[in-house]
Amino acid sequence: MVANLLYLLAHLDKIGLSCDTWYKIIAVLGVLGRAAVIVTFTLRTYVVWAQSRIVLTSLVMLGIATVLTDAIFVPRQTCASTRGDTAIVDIVRSLLTVVFETLSATLVFIRSLQAFRKYPNQHSFTYFLMQEGAVYFCVVSLFTVATFVLKVSTKSSYLHDLLNAFTLPLSGLLTARFLLHLRAWNKARTSTVSCTAALDVESQQHAPGSRSHTSISSVGIQLVSATTSINSERSDWLTTAEFGEDPMLKSKEFR
C-alpha cells in the first residue's frame, strides 16, 4: 500500500527525485513484500507437511526463482511503459508467482483434507487451516492469474498494472490476517491446556479419602509436572507457532 501511494505521487510529480528513481524504489519495496509473503507461505506449507524436506526444497527453489526474477525487473523500472525487452521477464515473474501460490495452496489443502476426512470437526485446527487457505487462494490467486492472463493476451499495460497494484497489498493483508488468527488460536489452545491441568489437580486434591499431607505433596508435584509439560509443549510449539502445525497431529487433539 505504501508502494502504491509512492507510485501515485511519483506519477503526479509531487515528490522529489526523478520519476524513474521513485519507480525503482517502489519496485524494491514490492520485491521485499513479495519475498516476505513467499517466506511465510513456504514455512507454513513446510510445517503443515510435518516439516518435509521435499516440500521445503521445492518451495524454496520456486520462491528463490520468483524473487530473483522480480529483482531482475527492478533496474528496468521506468515511468514509461515497461513492456519492450522486459516483457518476457515480467511474464516469467508472473508465471512463477502463479505456480508458487497454486502449489502451496494445493499442498496445504491436500494435507488439511486428509486430516479433516480422518477427524471431521468444524472447530478444529484443520478446518481453520482450510478456511484461511481457501480465502487466500480465492482472493489473491484470482488476481494473480488474471494479471498473468492479461499480460500474455494484451499489449496494453494499463489493465494488468491496475490488477498488479492490488495483488501485493491484498496478499500482505491476508497473510497478516492468517498470522493474527493463528496467534489467537495458539493463545486459546494454551489457555485450554492450562485450565484443564488446573482442574485435574483440583479434583484430585478434593478427592474423598485422600490424606492432607500426601495430598499437598501430590498437588505440588502435579502442578510442577503440569507446568513443565505446558512449558515444554510451548517450547516445541514456538518453533512453528507463527506458521501452524501438521493438521494430522492437531486433529487428534480435537477429536
TrEMBL record:
Keywords: Membrane, Transmembrane, Transmembrane helix. The chain crosses the membrane at residues 22-43, 55-74, 94-113, 125-150, 162-180. It comes from the Eukaryota. This is Uncharacterized protein.
